[in-house]
Request: fold
Amino acid sequence: MEQVYIGLGSNLAEPVQQLDAALAALAQLPETRLVAISAYYSSAPLGPSDQPRYTNAVAHLATDLTAHALLDQLQAIELDQGRQRKAERWGPRTLDLDIVLFGEHIIDDERLCVPHYHMHARPFVLLPLAELCPADLQLPDGRRLVDLLSNCPIDPTLQRLHTPQLGTSMAANKHRND
Reply:
């Protein structure tokens, strides 16, 4: 099974509940196991500043899905939770699910860029990722997580909120594909 890290973000329609629902949906994915969840963080929006703050987290999955099959599943979850894809980049959204790392793979095609192309500049991705990975983790492209963290722009508004618990239904489904 590939070890995969998914970035989660929401700033519309009750963001904490959006992330909770997304985690429940991730726990239901075929050929996939939800391994761990980082704390939730509150962060300032990228792009237009006239939008609500984001709630972000990272989930660790183990999956037998291909990267593109997983991407299809993630986009279906986004749509199920009311995501509307617009031309505006970095605008408000009910849910954003990004593949941050997909095992040791480097993917760069018209649909997917892994490791995530801009993770090095996003403390709301790096800090929760560091909760789930060893700091000496080396990414498939040779960068080390500890170096990304030390070089990442500081966001003084980033706030750690809480660590969600795997709910009873998520924990029960966590092992169904083992």
